[in-house]
Amino acid sequence: MNPESSLRGPSAGAGAGDTSSAVNPPDSVRYAFINEAIARSTGRPGALLGILEAVQERNPRKYLCADELSYIAAKTNIPLSQIFSVVTFYALFNLEPQGDHTICICRGTACHTRGSRTLLESVRLELGLEETPGQAGADKLTLTTADGRFTIRTVACFGQCALAPVVELDHRILGHMNERALAREVEGLEQERHE
Amino acid sequence: MPQKKISIRIDGVLVATLEGTTILEAARDAGRRVPSLCHMDGLKDVGACRLCIVALPNGRLVPACTTPVQEGLAVITNSPEIAAYRRMIVELLLVERNHVCSVCVSNGHCELQSLASSLGVNSVRFRYHYPILPLDLSQERFVLDHNRCILCSRCIRVCAEVEGAHVWDMMGRGIHSRVIGELDKPWGEAASCTNCGKCVQACPTGAMAEKGWAVEEMVKRTAQVAGAAFRKGVSL
Amino acid sequence: MSRIEDIGIFNAMREAGLAKVLPAMPRIAVGMGTCGRGNGAEGVYQALAHAIDRDGLDIQLAAVGCFGACSEEPLVNVWLPGQPMVILRRVQASDVERILTDLSRGRITPDLAWCKIEEWDHITAHLRYGVGFPELPLWSELPFFSGQKKIVLRNCGLIAPDDIDEYIAVGGYQALYKVLIDSKPESVIEQIKASKLRGRGGAGYATGIKWEFLAKAKDDRKYIICNADEGDPGAYMNRNEIESDPHGLLEGMIIGGYVTGASQGIVYVRHEYPLAVHKLTRALEQAREYGILGANILGRPFHFDIDMVEGAGAFVCGEETALIASLEGFSGRPRPRPPYPAQKGLAGKPTNINNVETWYNIAPIVLKGPAWFTEIGSTKSAGTKVFSLVGKVQNTGLVEMPLGTPLTKFVYDIGGGAAQGRTVKAVQTGGPSGGCIPHEMFDTPVDYETLGQLGSIMGSGGMVVMDEDNCMVDIARYFIEFTHSESCGKCVPCRVGLDQALEILNGFTKGTGTVAQLTLLNELGRMIRDTSLCGLGQTAPNPVLTTMRHFRHEFDDHIIARRCRAGVCHSLALSPCENSCPLHMNIPRFLDLLKEGRVDDAFEAVFLDNPLPASTGRVCQHPCDDRCRRQTVDAPVNMREVHRFIADAVLLTDRFEPLAARIAARKKAPTGKSVAVVGAGPTGLTAAFYLALLGHEVTVFENKAEAGGMLRYAIPEYRLPKRVLAQEVELIRRLGVKFQFGAGVGSAVTLNELDEGFDAVFLAIGTWKESWVYLPGTELKGVLPALPFLESVATGTNPALGRRMTVIGGGNAAVDSARTAVRMGMEATIVYRRERKDMPAIKEEVDAAEQEGVKFLFLAAPHRIVGDARGNVKALEIAKTRLGQYDASGRRKPVVTAEIVRLDCDAVVLAVGETVDLDFARASGLTLHEAGTFVVDRFTMETSRPNFFAGGDAISGASNVSNAMGFGKKAARKIDERLMGVKRFAGISGGFEYSMEPPETTSTSPRHRSAELTSAVRVKGEDEVMVGLTEADAADEACRCLRCDIRG
Questions:
Q1: A141 pLDDT band (50/70/90 cuts)?
Q2: What percentage of chain B has pLDDT greater than the value 90?
Q3: Could you give the dihedral angle defined by the CA atoms of residues C449, C450, C452 and C458, in that order, rounded to the nearest 10 degrees?
Q4: How far is residue C352's CA from residue C363's CA, in Å, rounded to a whole number?
Q5: What is the pLDDT of residue C372?
Q6: CA distance A124 to chain B (A)
């Protein structure tokens, strides 16, 4: 991975998506929030995870910027490399800005046996996203459209197996999905934009 | 605290050793050859390469490097099954990245290469993975070539445990794991690096090397670094 | 609310809580677990809240967790004081007004009511709701709940998880109180040990022993951890437990903390479970408020607190050393053991980790004692386990069963078996660490030891049911893909080994695998299992090793025949319809040719794929319908009737001659080889056609007078007119196939003669021997098997059988017999021992029979046939049956009852199946199966005798026309390969240019169907019932195809 592309600072912007309301607050505000998050969890088990989760959640584009990671490292005395190891290990953390809408497709067993792979393929084609060679067939997948509108992700399992196949659209769980119904949902979001 | 003397059986031979030593140390002290790649004297063992597996009497395989000896322990350090597994592990390492010995600075002085030859691995049954990996030449004195890396983490550990710099760590997971410096910065830009070169000497292959050497010329001073690590461990 | 400092306050709180759970007014509780919400429970709750508020109703509204019946969500509990609590199912917001109106009249909305609960054993308390509503079944009487024993799920779906008072009301925190008052930690550990409780996370280590380790460890700080990082795809019980009853978890952990001397507890929960995180956060706050967490718990000198940590999405963190690393701020890479966490765990301190469900068992064991617990479950595995039963069963959800319950109980009794028309093939237990258990082993008791012996594990309790539409190679590949992407990458076997295993399995699913790779995969799997660092790697090969052991034939199909029967592996099929077709017809091709108006080309393409297209276009079981992707839009494309239209458009018109010439012109140059085909049924005709097309001299030997086999002699004229079949046979004859009729092999010609006279012999003798049921009265006049009956009608010798006919059986032959009898002016009744949905006959045919006045008697088995003084049939006595246990076909076995019913009739037709003519088969000297069918190599179709091949019903047992033809086609290919030494088959049906562009639009029309004669007209004669599609309809039907064969 090229560090320049994977870690854009706030000034570098979050791509085309930044034209929307999703603008990152200034550094002072962000760093004050990080200080709070660190203060809340210092000395408690799972502190680093908690800090990173809070910082990412607060970011309007739901990702971690390089300067934030450096700031956390300096404040917590955790080596930079260890922080980078952690944020690249867990599926939750993003180093890239996420789209306005997130379509998360469950790849759990029950969903797989009920055709979630076809769903993933169809929505990928619909949004015109190329399968990146490194991610061919991989479970952990995150793709964002060039216009920053949509991010497709997969999740190991939502624990919603009785509703299989399950898709989460902007934190809304949709059960018993099929290609057509999913396409309609995505079209609905596309139309919102034009209205 | 003085360590208790105990006796164990290695390949049927009764051996005296100290409580708290690992099977690997005891076996090597007793002159048995137990292969390993991720173990380095003076560093904490992680049990990553799994080449040092030995068999307990019930047939269970355990890594010799992280299993402490106990009074009455009996282990077998080699068997047809163990040998086959070890060969397969080396095969897997050889197909994982781009190990082209003929153009490698460590050719002839590489732990992976010599292990492959001593275990009799002369062909692989798996498909080569041929990943596209970067070569980091940004550091003034050293090179990092991910194509030769076997992810043994000796560089990471020597830097964190002995030098105390913690420049290196492992990013990603599974087959996409890779050694990174700081926030995946080019080595030359890593401010925490002290330029000590211990990682280079600890590296078992040609993944980390000094600049300026041609093919076959890089000879690692691993024992020297291990000695320093050991002294640090004693002084702590 | 104040802190609980003494028993007086505690008891007062309990009373206050009971007034919420059993209030003096009606209570409505909506199931608001994630499953319920996913099905619209929030809307229901809001509608209820709105209406209650609007009308000022005296109704208590509560939001509870999930009762476990996920397929019936949203569930709503309705309780009127003094009455049983009633569970309503599939409630929608629009039902709310009805429910409230009914409730105001003291009634329960009947169409929503599912079951009632009169009293409930919370284990820690016993609640009586009331008695009444005799028309409603008790919850425990429903199949889904039968045999369930709710210990872990004791409170789920019944109390509000947000309200600690309700938890205390049903006996919550009593066990904690008892433990603190008794202040004998060692005796609690002894109790847990005596209870034989084993870790519910999968490995099954004895909980009491683990606790003892921690209790004995000396340190100033010790930790206990709840592992709620439930990452097994297919398992979600922990989510539901925490969402529905968070205090149950806390109570177990606080007790554990007290008896092991730990001062800090941690719940490590997945961030993918936001609702569980929310409920737990709230429960922690309440517990602190009540003095149940923190300093001086319940007024006793014990300090303990619990932190919650959200995992960040890594399956491997379910492994305890990885979980600890994760808590310490590192990537979740497992560490070698020893040292074990009990010695050196979190931050180097002694630590104990248990799964969510283990903690839920603590309070009940403390209160009820170990003896109560060991009585539940099996000897070695005490207690219950919650399973998530999902996949291809009708009832899905969470079920808590005593350990040792056989799998068949889960799949059939609770799950209700597969969906209509499908068969369950396997159950996957234990997620990516577990294995697939085949149908033949469903008697297996589900406990730690037995599953281990089968190469699977209990795991966290995921149970994913697979049916015939699931490809086991794909399932193995799926799990390796999963563990591959979740492998932490630390140790070589798991990191690189799984990558290579995935590479090999990907090859299998793409048709590029080799047999050598299968061996290598097995060796690799064993190496990964035996040498990996942690549990993830050590168990990751289980799904592959078990599927290779139990479903080896599917691997062979993929590697040797390059076929995926389930149609899952896309690379091995042209399209789902093609894959499901026994003849592997290129269906999208003929649809497109017709769409382009090229009927002649379409016919040529169809005929080259299927030399009896008009016949199969009428009588095929059309498996393609089930696979067609158009059904996700509306209904499948009517492929069968389109190819019938194409076939009729040529065979029954003046296009016949030119097209026959075109096909004959495709015949390859003579090879000089000769082949004998024995039997002129669909199998033999198909093989003869292709062999002739390939340039061989083909002679068909048939002991009857005409070609067609069952098509000619068993299928009635009204379904398949003889002139249609005759045209098809004529076209095959034009290719130079010679027929010798009346030439029974074994009598007129011997096998040795065939061996000498031909280069290869293909036996397609079919199944012409009637199975016979032995019951009193079969010797009477008027009793006859279906085949001779249908044959006599087909050859024009209508037998006189009286006025009323009873047909025994449920297959196509039974339906054909009954419908034929109706056309002979008789009344016909079909007697079948199972239910209508179990009938093997084509559904449309059963419906048509009913329209024509055929009567049906289900759940009825023949008992005896009664005759009159002259030896004629007078009546059939039948025994009523009821449905019992499930059999190997996944259908419930009919069990005969004592109830006998008499059915007056003049004739009885036995249509109970056909078998191979055993006399001939035995005399042939070829190796046979027990059932009398020929043993052949399933890839080469060779019999035990050199140069002798066999196919069709003679190797499979009685099947259907298309399957039989599929064998004929495959045999022709294999015989040609053997005779010529090269593969020539693939090219013979090619050479058509047609559009391979995805259609811009498809027809929006619903499925077109053929017109039918009215039943009044059709019973008067033998005219064909199905008229066939019109030209316009056929063309439009072709435009409905979505063209899945085009991939981009």
A1: confident
A2: 86
A3: -80
A4: 18
A5: 97
A6: 23
CATH class of the C384-572 domain in this structure: alpha beta
Question: CB atoms < 10 A from the CB of C203, how many?
Answer: 16
In CATH, which of 1.10.357, 1.20.120, 1.10.1060, 1.20.58 is domain C576-665+988-1048?
A: 1.10.1060
Which of C238, C390, C465, C568 is the best substitution to test chain A (most A C-beta atoms within 10 A)? C390
CATH of range B5-78; options 3.40.50.970, 3.30.70.3270, 3.10.20.740, 3.40.50.10470: 3.10.20.740
pLDDT for the residue numbered C919: 81
- In chain A, the residue whose alpha carbon lies closest to the alpha carbon of B169 is A81
DSSP H helical segments within C147-273, as ranges? 164-169, 174-182, 185-194, 207-216, 237-244, 246-260
Sort out which chain C residues have CB atoms less than 8 A from B88's CB and list them.
Answer: 497, 523-524, 527
Rg (CA), chain B: 19
* Three-class HEC string of C936-973: CCCCCCECCCCCEEECCHHHHCCCCHHHHHHHHHHHHH
| Contact state of B127 with C500 under an 8 Å Cβ cutoff | yes
From the list B172, B176, B182, the residue facing A81 with the nearest CB is: B182
**B169/A79 touch (CB, cutoff 8 Å), yes or no:** yes
| Domains of chain A by start residue, with CATH | 3-89 (no CATH), 101-194 (3.40.30.10)
A-B contacts at Cβ under 8 angstroms: 48
Q: What is the pTM of this model?
A: 0.89
CA angle B70, B76, B80 (to 5 degrees): 155
Residue C167 · residue C173 · CB < 8 Å: yes
Q: In A33-175, where do the E strands start and end?
A: 101-106, 142-144, 150-155, 167-169, 172-174
pLDDT tens digits along B48-106? 999 999 999 999 999 999 999 999 999 999 999 999 999 999 999 999 999 999 999 99
Q: What is the pLDDT of residue C50?
A: 97
Rounded to the nearest angstrom, the minimum Cα separation between C469 and chain A is 9
Convert the pLDDT of each residue in C162-186 to its tens digit: 999 999 999 999 999 999 999 899 9
Fill in the DSSP letter of residue C559: I
In the predicted structure, residue A10 carries a pLDDT above the cut 50: no
Mean pLDDT of chain C: 93
**Is the pLDDT at A21 greater than 90, yes or no?**
no
Please state the rounded mean pLDDT for residues C964-985.
96
Predicted confidence (pLDDT) per residue in B94-115, tens digit: 999 999 999 999 999 999 999 9
The dihedrals phi and psi of A165, each to the nearest 5 degrees, come to -80, 145
CA atoms within 13 A on the CB side of C359: 30
Neighbours of chain B (3+ CB pairs under 8 A): A, C
Measure CB to CB from residue C491 to each of B50, B61, B127 and give the nearest one.
Answer: B50
B95·C489 Cβ contact <8 A: no
Instruction: Provide, as residue numbers in chain C, all residues whose Cβ is less than 8 Å from the Cβ of A48.
Output: 329
Does the structure show a pLDDT above 50 at A13? no
Residue C888 pLDDT class (50, 70, 90 cuts): low
CA distance B191 to chain A (A): 10
Q: How far is C506 from chain B, CA to nearest CA, in Å?
A: 12
Is C486 part of the contact surface with chain A (CB cutoff 8 Å)? yes
Cross-chain residue pair A50–C462, CB shorter than 8 Å: no
User: Nearest residue on chain B to C483, judged by CA atoms?
Assistant: B174
What ipTM did this prediction achieve?
Answer: 0.97
CATH code, residues B101-108+132-235: 3.30.70.20
Q: Do you know the residue count of chain B?
A: 236
Q: Are the Cβ atoms of C390 and A159 closer than 8 angstroms?
A: no
Could you count the other beta carbons within 10 Å of the beta carbon of residue C37?
Answer: 23
List chain C domain ranges. Answer: 7-142, 173-374, 384-572, 576-665+988-1048, 772-912
| C487 contacts on B by Cβ (under 8 Å) | 173-175
pLDDT score, position C669? 95
pLDDT beyond 80 at B192: yes
